[in-house]
Amino acid sequence: MTSRVHVSRAARVVLAGGVIAYPTEAVFGLGCLPENRAAVERVLAIKRRSWRKGLLLIGAELAQLERFVVLPTGPRRQHAPRWISGGRDSVAVRLTDHPLARELCSSVGHALVSTSANVSRRPPLRDVRVLRRELGPEVDYVLAGALGGLAKPTVIKDGRTGKILRSG
Questions:
Q1: I want to staple 32 with a disulfide (CB 3.0 to 4.6 A). Which of 7, 18, 27, 39 is the partner?
Q2: 3-state secondary structure string, 112-136?
Q3: Contact, 88 vs 55, CB < 8 A?
Q4: pTM of the predicted model, to two decimals?
């Protein structure tokens, strides 16, 4: 099967309320629709992580992320659910540069949760075989593919202050 077929299958799973694992720029990620609370709760349960830490959202284009953030040139429009923002007045977002993740966001037509595929405090998974063994039974679909080549997860900065919230 071609990658397009696999991406379409992953998109159908996400749109049906499922949780998937997929390659990102540096590690495999867990993803779902950010406004599907049950799916987000599954992601958090897989990671054994509190919702209060917040989650990163990725999109293929800015339009997929706009409704979740406050834009400096426009009115206050943040509509990120508490289970995504961790109860904060901001949410972490990224325009993904990874070809499969970008194609997945485009196929879904929506931003996706993107958090590293691992149990909290354990190293993020970078090998699809290890991912399938450790987390495969807990996700609805694994979109296999090459990682983007970064050695560490991306840096997260506060867009208002420039403060580094997570160094890669």
A1: 39
A2: EECEECCCCCCCCCCCHHHHHHHCH
A3: no
A4: 0.86
